[in-house]
Amino acid sequence: MAQGLLGEKRPLAGFLDADGIRESVAALEDAFAAEPGVQVLHTFAAKAASLIPVLRLLADCGMGCEVAGPGELRLAVEAGFTPARIVLDSPAKTRDELRLALALGVAVNADSFGEIRRIEEIRSPGSASVLGLRVNPQVGGGSIGAMSTATATSKFGVALRDPGAREQVVRTFAERPWLTRLHAHVGSQGCSLQLIAAGIAETYRLAEEVNEVVGVRRITGIDIGGGLPVNFADDEARPAFADYVAALRAEAPGLFDGRYDLVTEFGRSLLAKNGFIGARVEYTKDAGGRRIALTHAGAQIATRTVFMPDAWPLRVGVFDGEGRPRNGPSMVQDIAGPCCFAGDVVAHARELPELREGDFVVLYDTGAYYFSTPWAYNSLPRPAVYGFAGGTGGLRFAPVREAQSLDSVAAESGLHHAGALTGLYEKP
Ligand SMILES: *Cc1c(COP(=O)(O)O)cnc(C)c1O
């Protein structure tokens, strides 16, 4: 606020703690480095913070990048990841996307047998791409259905426990020397470490079975996905990456003995706690005995929280117009957003110091999947995002993404085709 990045004219912005991001990457690296026998490529799941400066910082930290479509692939290339450190996953890759990925030498995990057939048609023998197959170990779901990728009927990967599927996977590898990797991403927020580790252990046993049947080490790498859940209740990063490595070691010790190269694809656990949203309180009002603070942070920036408030609760901080924490007596308040539908509330009936017009609320732990993934509802412009570094020695800020201009909102809303529909009725 002292720097003018938040204020009456700039009522909403996202912030990213660059030092914190680097520390999170170091924690991930250290956790796996405790298992010295194994080669690991840590990739960042681009969808968790699809901002080129974030991706470049992560590339600079030595990470790779997991992408799920042409847009994310473009961002990864622009951010400076070399193709060998990029992994393409997505359940609906087109032939053109596959051609591009194979031409670049990006690793590709096929999501189905159908996709294996397409890759087989397209690939040239000289392609540098590492090619894998995603499986669904069907170990079950966590507490958030939409985040559970290993249920019996999940749309992702080859459903391993379906009749005949395991045998078909083994045959598929046996017949294709170019297929060398197994991939599983067992779940995200709401899934326990035990559940995720059980899914990875199942994938490891499948790799062992394939190599045993084929008689050579056909599978040389296992991509274990991401999905470490994040604690949204306080400041502590828990579970830690080290807890996850311990859970994996308990379930599948062979994973770390160096016979398989590993790939990881963490997203939320690297970024969530390293970002926050600042939003101005434009008005307060009372309705039916409830105090409501109308802020600029709603479904356009906290989409999951607004639509599934029980699954995605956020901590809220309260600050006055100068940025000082408010410590007054607390009262029950709703923190509402600017969108025009009644459910646009980011915190329901929360006990917080009384908010006033011109105050700011902070939504913590929103560095992943929040302001980096805005929703265009109500044609609300995308808010600016700033990064910062240098805590004790004086904070330095840098723009990561500019606030969207109204010209850009109009352009994205068909400005250049304004007469398209009326034109359909004009006489030629
Ligand atoms: C979303 C996703 C990830 C990252 O999940 P997080 O919960 O953010 O760690 C990794 N791999 C795949 C295939 C994904 O779809």
UniProtKB/TrEMBL annotation:
Orn/DAP/Arg decarboxylase 2 N-terminal domain: which residues?
Answer: 21-271
Which part of the chain is the Orn/DAP/Arg decarboxylase 2 C-terminal domain? Answer: 275-367
Matches recorded under Gene3D superfamilies: Alanine racemase (3.20.20.10), Lyase, Ornithine Decarboxylase, Chain A, domain 1 (2.40.37.10)
Q: Which keywords does UniProt give here?
A: Amino-acid biosynthesis, Lysine biosynthesis, Pyridoxal phosphate
Respond yes or no to whether keyword Signal is given for this record: no
What SUPFAM superfamilies does the entry give? Alanine racemase C-terminal domain-like, PLP-binding barrel
Question: Which cofactors, by name?
Answer: pyridoxal 5'-phosphate
So what family is this one in? Belongs to the Orn/Lys/Arg decarboxylase class-II family.
Q: What is this protein called?
A: Diaminopimelate decarboxylase
- What organism, scientifically named, is this protein from? Streptomyces mutomycini
